[in-house]
Model the fold of this input.
Amino acid sequence: MTDTYTPADTSAGTALDSLRGRCADCRACPLWETRTKSVFGVGDSRARLMFVGEAPGGEEDKTGIPFVGAAVKLLDRYLYAVGIARESVYIANILKCRPPHIPPRRMPASVICVSRPG
Done:
C-alpha cells in the first residue's frame, strides 16, 4: 500500500473522532443501558482495508476496543500471513454496544446504528 496516513492530513481522523463522540453519547436504542463502553473502531483512519464485525463481545465491551482477545489473535495471524500490517487497516463493528445475549441480527439496534441520520 502506497497511500499512508500522515499527521498533517487529519480530516479523516477528525471526522471519525466526531462520530466516536456521538456513538459514546448515543441513547437511540436500549443497548446503551447495559454497555460498559461503546466500541467504535481502531486503526488507520485512512485505511484502504476495513474489517467489520457484527457486535462487541464481553472483552470489547470492557475495553471499548473491537477485536480483542482471541479474535485479535486470529485476525493478526491472517494479516501476517498475507503481509498486511495491522496498523494499516481499520477495525470496527456494526453495533457499537454489546447486545445482551440476543444475536445482533435480531436486534432493531443494528438498523439504528447504521441508518440514524446525523
Notes: The radius of gyration is 15 Å. The first strand starts at residue 41 and ends at 43.
